[in-house]
What does this fold into?
Amino acid sequence: MAIMDAQLNTWRLFAHADRHFADVEIVTEESPGVKHRYTFADFARRARALMNVLDGLNLSPGAKVATLSFNTYRHLECYFAIPCTGRVLHTLNARLSPEDLSFIINDAQDEAIFVAHDLLPLLEGISDQIPSVKAIVVMGGEPDQSGSGRLDYEALLAESSTQYAERAIDENTPSGLCYTSGTTGRPKGAVYTHRSTYLHAINCASPSGMSICTSDCVLPVVPMFHASAWGIVHAAIATGAKIVFAYPHLDPRSFVDLLFDEGVTMAAGVPTVWISIEEELRSRAKRPPMLREIVSGGSQPPKPLIERYQRELGIPIAQAWGMTETSPLASVARPKHSMLHLSDHERLDRVGSQAGIPAPGIDMSLRDDEGNEVAWDGTTMGNLYVRGPWVIDSYLHGRGADSFEGGWFKTGDVAIGSPDGYFVIADRTKDLIKSGGEWISSVDLEGALMGMPGVVEAAVVAIPDDKWQERPLACIVAASGSDITLEAVRAHLSQQGFARWQLPERIEIIDQVPRTSVGKFDKKALRAKFPQ
It folds into this structure.
């Protein structure tokens, strides 16, 4: 007896959706209150036409084809048409600087770029710096009449057949390419295979992941150019879940309208999104009736935010963790059956405030600086290593080789494992504050500060200190009319259980916390702004 050799590739996801979920809807909010709506059948027909377009662009076998777009139905068509023709989907981050964008395009050697019409100016500014690009295809907007040579997406699809025979694609060939955000140097490329993408989609859809099935309607706020939208798009296509794409420039009112009007059951995005729409949710007479949960990742959501959503809005927030290098979903925090009886407060401490339990297939190791395993005792910090079938084993062109060791990826995170089997990110290695020989977690301080009345957001960075080596500096965004003082900050943190030596001796009131291209706090910018 033997098992069939069925290749795990993107075609398997696409063909399954095409056959079984023809009537399921895909909704794109093109501007606040203005929607484009079509079905999986429409998506599949147009994606097959796009496959024929790709074959006619004179691209190399296995060529890297980039997209520069937010979350739209056209971007979804690219998500599947590009890898289903044996090419590599390279999602470009629309929030990058022109310098980083040209570096990444050249580093990847992209041969074609599919760009949303409103993002075309980003490319026009670097068009003479990207010699590998043979074709630029503009998605949406008015057809180009300037004679620039740019191609019109809709015109190309209209001229192409919607018939396309399934290709035999080896599951171990590359299907996707994402670049890291480059917070510690030049961005590095992470290459995903068809097999890893398929397995990651099943992981994302599973109850241990984001629990996505045919009965769901998902709203991925996370951009499709950020680590494959956390796998949500692939999982939704695989399972036949309705997909809703929100207007990319967050409008709280229209966003909450989508939750109500489209029957969204699961939405996913960074904590900033849920902070931004909280007031709008409170203004409604009731909660979105079908919203089962919110998944929050990218950075650790503040405990007070999780608590307020659950207690006051009746909406659970599940914390997820992952990295570009892990495709990205590696864990989600859900309670064990034995924990269902716990009080809300205890469950928040033991589960909700954790980064989760590693997904089936993901191994994690916590090690000291000498490489020895540390105890999962709820207090001991260790350097976090991961491995698994959707974790990369190297970066493109062999860069960053020191991040890989003995079959493990060194994440650069410092984590604490609990006796329950959960783990929490204590900090990025570069963001830990070493004061008098002891480590202070900036993440813990930030979470506590964002629970302080009058504080909208807070980021904590290290500043040099002649006596203690480093001390924490709290950069705070205050609510309108609030008077935040150092004394009040220290008193609040003391009440939260922080020791005297962990308390900041200085605060800075700022208008907003600077962010990286993927929405995380840009502590590099804060350290540059407040060097001492």
